[in-house]
């Protein structure tokens, strides 16, 4: 039974255009783990920030919440085989559920994992079974749906698809992993194919693609099963690939970009490194490599020239690297593997899979300075969903429960 516990009233990139304070897609408005928030707490009381409310009954799933237009959208299972998107208001009440269809029942992580991308009055999402769909938010009706594995003849992968779709102007970009279609773009109004990366064939992985502008050229960058790959974002022209092998082709961490360098990372002791782009972005060469930060699926962030993220099998701790050189600035053993994000001068690290500890850390290349922590005790399953921050509220999805914490400075 779906219930809502109101503890207090919340007084309150590339891709879809976000209004101030919104988080309309995976890992924030720019897809890079950075949230456009101001006037947030720089330290937490011993018990953590106040819990405003929590909403239960969201079913199985590991998708992040998307927040846009005064509503919160959280995918979850509505029965044993079918997923829906729960539409929640800013006070925590479930207003309605939009059924979307069959979803993965994979034992490792049953339920939806893709985060909805909100673009105006439409929502775009991908199921673990390969169904990409566009939904009219007001009516809840599907405008179109396309199984990208069937259309582009790509195989599904070990834990089934989990990428979050990238809306880029008139296109929706995805990773089918098919022959001559490692990447593809669909018309966002119709679902028709716009382009596919002819000449690049590699199975999909779990990575959310991103677009960066390099010397005026818009580059689409992501990880497939075996490679970091770059393509022209406008035409889909395949430009380059760089082999980086991990166990079972598991690549989840969205690459970072700064000053002509593209950073990549993978778990299972595979580590990462940076590639140096040619002037026109059509070629790459290795700039440096690193084994300390082997980020599995928890994301990394770039702050003032330094990369922050947590390692997987090489230490299981928070790491700071210099983007320019790959130099390890420090490691912090007290902060274990977890999702790493950034807002208003602070890092937020949400530990998983079992611990559920949330850390507030002041980023600095000199040392790790922790400014508070609390533990998420409500909810079900592993602590794997990436949090979102919107209008001074930290949203954490833990299985069937969404929790909202007030992190505004008073």
Corresponding CATH superfamily: YVTN repeat-like/Quinoprotein amine dehydrogenase
Q: What does the average pLDDT come to? A: 95
Structural class: mainly beta
Helix tally equals: 1
In CATH, the topology is named Methylamine Dehydrogenase, Chain H
The number of domains is 1
Quaternary structure type: single chain
- Overall 3D form: globular
Described by strand count, sense and barrel closure, the largest sheet is: 5 strands, antiparallel
What's the β-strand tally? 34
Description:
With 410 residues, this protein is mostly beta strands. The chain has one domain (4-12, 15-406): YVTN repeat-like/Quinoprotein amine dehydrogenase (Methylamine Dehydrogenase, Chain H, 7 Propeller). Helix content is 1%, strand content 43%. The chain contains 1 helix and 34 strands. It has one helix at residues 148-152, and strands at residues 4-6, 34-35, 51-56, 66-68, 71-77, 82-89, 94-102, 117-119, 122-126, 131-136, 142-147, 166-168, 171-174, 184-187, 193-196, 210-214, 217-223, 227-232, 238-243, 256-258, 261-266, 271-277, 284-290, 301-303, 306-310, 318-322, 328-332, 338-343, 346-351, 357-362, 369-375, 388-390, 393-398, 401-406. A hairpin with a 7-residue loop joins strand 25 (306-310) and strand 26 (318-322). The chain is globular.
């Amino acid at each position: 039974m779906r219930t809502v516990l109101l503890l207090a009233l919340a007084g309150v990139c590339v891709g879809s255009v976000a209004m101030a304070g919104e988080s309309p897609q995976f890992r924030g408005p720019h897809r890079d783990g950075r949230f456009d928030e101001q006037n947030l707490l720089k330290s937490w009381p011993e018990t953590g920030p106040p819990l405003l409310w929590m909403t239960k009954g969201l079913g199985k799933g590991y998708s992040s919440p998307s927040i846009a237009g005064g509503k919160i959208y959280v995918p979850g299972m509505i029965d044993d085989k079918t997923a829906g998107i729960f539409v929640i208001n800013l006070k925590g009440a479930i207003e309605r559920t939009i059924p979307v269809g069959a979803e993965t029942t994979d034992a490792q992580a049953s339920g939806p994992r893709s985060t909805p991308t909100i673009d105006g009055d439409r929502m775009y999402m991908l199921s673990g079974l390969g169904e990409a769909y566009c939904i009219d938010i007001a009516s809840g009706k599907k405008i179109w749906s396309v199984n990208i594995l069937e259309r582009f003849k790509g195989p599904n992968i070990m834990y089934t698809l989990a990428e979050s779709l990238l809306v880029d102007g008139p296109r929706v970009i995805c990773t089918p992993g098919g022959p001559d279609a490692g990447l593809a773009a669909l018309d966002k109004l119709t679902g028709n194919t716009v382009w596919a990366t002819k000449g690049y064939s590699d199975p999909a992985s779990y990575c959310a693609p991103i677009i960066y502008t390099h010397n005026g050229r818009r580059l689409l960058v992501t990880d497939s099963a075996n490679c970091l790959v770059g393509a022209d974002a406008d035409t889909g022209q395949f430009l380059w690939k760089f082999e980086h092998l991990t166990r079972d082709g598991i690549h989840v961490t969205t690459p970072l970009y700064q000053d002509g360098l593209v950073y990549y990372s993978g778990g299972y002791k595979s580590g990462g490194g940076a590639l140096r782009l040619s002037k026109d972005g059509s070629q790459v060469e290795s700039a440096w490599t690193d084994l300390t930060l082997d980020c599995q699926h928890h994301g990394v962030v770039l702050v003032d020239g330094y990369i922050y993220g947590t390692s997987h099998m090489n230490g299981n701790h928070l790491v700071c690297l210099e983007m320019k050189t790959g130099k390890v600035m420090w490691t912090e053993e007290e902060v274990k593997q977890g999702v790493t994000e950034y807002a208003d001068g602070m890092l937020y690290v949400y530990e998983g899979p079992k611990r559920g500890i949330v850390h507030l850390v002041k980023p600095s290349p000199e040392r790790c300075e922790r400014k508070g922590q609390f533990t998420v005790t409500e909810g079900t399953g592993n602590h794997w969903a990436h949090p979102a921050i919107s209008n001074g509220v930290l949203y954490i999805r833990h299985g069937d429960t969404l929790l909202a914490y007030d992190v505004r400075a008073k």
